[in-house]
Design a protein that fits this description.
By secondary structure, the chain is of the alpha+beta class. It has 2 helices and 7 strands; from the N terminus they run βαββββαββ.
Length: about 80
């Protein structure tokens, strides 16, 4: 499972930060950061979701008010949102 985070879309509500500890607030620019991720394209970051964090990852994606977080299964199919 993989998480994709569009940082440009993020509006800094930080709900993801409350739901999954791989998101951290960057209060200087009012956006979240996805830790230990790699930048796939400009302002789009990805990382693998550990098996024990699948629920947290899905929940973080569901609570994002602007759908800046997308979860994909191992076959590349979108699961959330």
């Amino acid at each position: 499972m993989q998480v994709e985070f569009d940082r440009d879309t993020c509006i800094g509500m930080f709900q993801c930060v409350e739901e999954w500890d791989v998101f951290e607030p960057d209060r200087d620019d009012g956006k979240a950061d996805l830790v230990e991720s790699e930048e796939r394209e400009e302002d789009v970051f990805v990382r693998e979701v550990p098996d024990d964090a699948e629920f947290d990852a899905k929940f973080a994606a569901r609570v994002c008010p602007v759908d800046a977080i997308v979860i994909y299964d191992d076959d590349g199919e979108q699961l959330v949102p």
